[in-house]
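PROTEIN DATA CARD
Card holder: Carboxypeptidase
Chain length: 377
Origin: Cytobacillus kochii
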Amino acid sequence: MEGYIQQRKTEMLQLIEKLVNIDSGSYVKKGIDEIGRILQKKYEEIGFVVEVKTEAKYGNHLVIRHEHSLHPKIILVAHMDTVFPEGTVKKRPFQMKGSRAYGPGVVDMKSSLVELLYAMKALVHCGSNACENVQIILNGDEEIGSPSSRELIEEQSMGKEYALIMEPARKDGSLVTARRGGGRYKLIIKGKAAHSGIEPEKGRSAIEELAYKIIQLHNLTNHEQGISVNVGIISGGSSVNTISDNAVAHIDIRITEKEQAQELEKKIKRICANTEVRGTEIQLEGAISRPPMEYNEQTEKLLHIIQEVGEEIGLHVHNTATGGGGDASFTSATGVPTVDGLGPVGGNAHSKEEYIEIDTLTERTILLAKTIERLSR
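Structure generated from the sequence above:
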């Protein structure tokens, strides 16, 4: 198996280049669907059946399993969308410099899509029945919180024994065994406009009300408990000499434990239920929508299996926690032991300097294929 994968390093890089050079930001549906069609053909060529879940607004999702698969125990999840807007590829297409490859989405996570495909190709080539033990979800909206694919992922997770999520490994090669959960809120405040010089007493400042709310919301942050509330974007007002009749805040929420969500939501709603500035009105939209991926005994057991496989191929596998969200939260919340970060090693995701370490592409593909084999025994 190792030889098969190592001999296809150039082939894998060529497919990564092809995928990277397709704009597939979360709202570039045509690009996501093009990537889906390319991968659908590749999987069908090696005996897999691909069901396309058509979406009107977002990219389509693919549900993939081997034609002889009956009751697969392993779910694998990878996403086809990126954070980059249409036109990014034209400005900075795929390129290789030394030991690294660069390009929009190269690490998050187009290289993972190729790794996953070639792990399946290797299992098929070697005649391993393990290829029949996987259910693969390729979704098209992970970067915006998986609004249309969350239900699909949770549904397909039911009855599974293991979940392997294909986000990239960390810069030091670590797998991810815990992620913070979270959500987004939008706070809309309406006031009453008035000239700030002639008749300010007639105005009701939405910006002033928002200032009170920002302080109260930020006071909910508790770093020791892993809770953070951040008002990241604000806007409001029409001119410097006008009492503002409108203000808007966008709020990011992060939690570490599932039980924190309900109490934190109560506190946010309580803050926004009343106004400090008489005559202003508040509208709150949003929710804590992504549960945390918590490190537990089941996760630890799965991690140890992957580490044992790593040792067999000369790869020392470590683990870490991250504050970022991901689809691993959904599989973990359904009770399936979940490990994330099984993609190649890289870094600087979501930036112009995004890269993968080229040499880790084949070693991580070998690790993935052999892990699937071990879990299928």
